[in-house]
Specification:
By secondary structure, the chain is α+β, with helices and mostly antiparallel strands. 40% of the residues lie in helices and 18% in strands. The strands form three sheets. The chain has a four-stranded antiparallel β-sheet with strand order 6-7-1-8. A two-stranded antiparallel sheet has the order 2-5. A two-stranded antiparallel ribbon has the order 3-4.
């Protein structure tokens, strides 16, 4: 499954930790790529706005039918899709509290957090989210459920306009995929080489 994901360039914007063939560890590779992109933008006389997002309760809220649809659209073979369909459907849990055990509770949506395949499955599930910046001539990436959107332009007003369009698309994706960004964890960075560059409020 990892080989299929690598061959389809699915992992391009995701952490090296999910790629056994990668020589870097953890989040080093996307971090170094981000530094390169920032310096390259500065050389072109541009400024950068980066928005950091955290997807809340990403694994338990993933919709199985949408995961399988993404796998189909990305060209994964049917036997592999059937395997994960069986693994992720017809699941139940019980709750135990003060010596009392509940009846079976049906689990409709989830990716099994901690399972060896969970990282790749979430990567597949959130693929469209990570591609939002590049579809708007921006940049971005993710480390599991932590994403960032990056806009580069001549001034921060233009960058903020691009970021806001990305957020509109992200909100539509969140509604459709049952995953929402935690607003209280939003962080915005505005980066420039010139100390006298105007920094408008992010809206």
């Amino acid at each position: 499954m990892t080989a299929l994901s690598e061959s389809s360039s699915l992992m391009m914007s995701f952490p090296c930790q999910s790629q056994p063939s990668c020589s870097l560890v953890g989040s080093e590779n996307p971090f170094l790529t981000l530094i390169h992109d920032i310096k390259n933008a500065w050389r072109q006389g541009k400024v950068i706005t980066i928005l950091l997002l955290d997807i809340a309760s990403a694994f338990p809220n993933a919709v199985t039918s949408l995961l399988l649809l993404n796998m189909q659209q990305l060209g994964y073979p049917m036997p592999l899709m059937k395997f994960f369909e069986v693994m992720l459907t017809d699941r139940h849990t019980t709750l135990v509290f003060d010596g009392s055990t509940s009846g079976k509770i049906v689990i409709n949506n989830f990716i099994r957090q901690g399972d060896p395949s969970s990282m790749l499955l979430y990567l597949i599930y959130s693929y469209a989210l990570v591609t939002i910046p590049t579809s708007m001539q921006g940049d971005g990436g993710a480390y599991v459920d932590n994403n960032f959107f990056m806009a580069l332009d001549k001034d921060f007003m233009e960058c903020d306009s691009i970021i806001n369009k990305m957020l509109d698309t992200q909100e539509s994706w969140s509604v459709a995929h049952n995953l929402h960004a935690e607003i209280t964890k939003f962080k915005c960075l505005q980066l420039t080489r010139c100390a006298n560059t105007a920094h408008p409020y992010f809206v």
